[in-house]
Amino acid sequence: MKLKTTVYNEPAPDPRLARRQRKADALRRHALSPLRILLMVLALPLTTGMIALGVYLRTSDLERTEAVMHLVALAGCDAARSVGLGPMREGQLGYHKRNDPDGDGIACESSVRAATRSAVPVQAPASTQSTAPKPRAVGNAKFVRP
Asked: Which residues partner with 88 through β-bridges?
């Protein structure tokens, strides 16, 4: 037994509407492309870092070049030397406690000078020994409560 299907006369689709629909579908495919989404996710840390750098440069009391040098010194002593910073005393441009492993207030001192100083111990009076900085191990984090 054969079933008859009834065909209704539907109005012909508007060509402008079909073209608009095709454009919308193409735009949707492009916007939701997995490659595009992956690139946007991978670019997010870079974008966040650039925004943070811009905010730091605008709000810092230092000049722009000095602020950049101070941030580069945060990466380590080799990076600080590469931008022309030498041994920095506490409070100077480029000084960070993480670059001062012995805690004497001088960051990124040359290894020869530090070795010489540690090889020849200097006896200080008893009153100064109690206020001398304590040796710190590299990598110890100190958290400050607000």
From this structure: 107
